[in-house]
From TrEMBL:
Pfam family, one: Lactamase_B
InterPro entries with a match to the protein in the record: ComA-like_MBL, Competence_DNA_uptake, Metallo-B-lactamas, RibonucZ/Hydroxyglut_hydro
Domain of life: Bacteria
Domain Metallo-beta-lactamase: 6-211
Designated name of the protein: MBL fold metallo-hydrolase
PANTHER family attached to this UniProt entry: DNA INTERNALIZATION/COMPETENCE PROTEIN COMEC/REC2, RECOMBINATION PROTEIN 2
Amino acid sequence: MLNVKQGDAFLFETNKRESILIDTGGKLMQSGIKENHNIAKYHIIPTLKKHRLKTINYIIITHPHIDHMGELSYLITKYKINNIIINTRSFEKNKLKLLIKQCERNHVKLIDFKNIQRFKLGKANISLLDSTINHSEDLNEQSIITYIEYNKIKMLFTGDATINNEQLLLRKYKLPKINILKVGHHGSKTSTSDELLQKIRPTICLVSVGKKNHYHLPNQEIIAKLKRLGAQVFQSSEYGEVTIKLKSKLTINTEINQ
Ligand SMILES: [Zn+2]
Ligand SMILES: [Zn+2]
């Protein structure tokens, strides 16, 4: 879990330095303030470099909210990216056109998630699960859900998917027990239903949130519920960047010690 303040950015890496970045973080530009890309500059690119990743194999944009894709255009120009996966339908026409152009210019392959439901990256198996609700006006309900299996470790990244998506997900797919869960929608009450938790029983939960964010996230009831389940919960607002070694015994390193 990268430390991108209020937003999401999760980096998955194999032992051969193959990588997937799920969301890029990003913050709302206040009018009058010059565009800055401090999040990518100080919190994403240094981590990629530290891990000696010269290329990002895939960027998955769960849904086109600024806190999930705000740093994308900057990253496209600053880093070698092979593929970007999006839910095309969730994008406004103009935004999509711009992205297509930018991908062409920088030799990035842009892929709709419906065209790549399962793929391999080295020894990792990745499934892009579709529980999107197309007619929903809430972009969170267009979130791509990513399931990764690597070294027998099972990980689920749900973007900002809501309880409605979770219900669909449970109906459509047979989910296993999950070792690492990216908690939906920054720990908001709109996500993380009891039904989902009972099914996947996560052991490590990652919550990406900014300190003292004005959405008052995460919701404390959600955090309490996860802990009651016996899960270890890590908030980026408290621990900063959180790194988990994906070996049979999961070891967790945090930027800030508690
Ligand atoms: Zn979000
Ligand atoms: Zn969102």
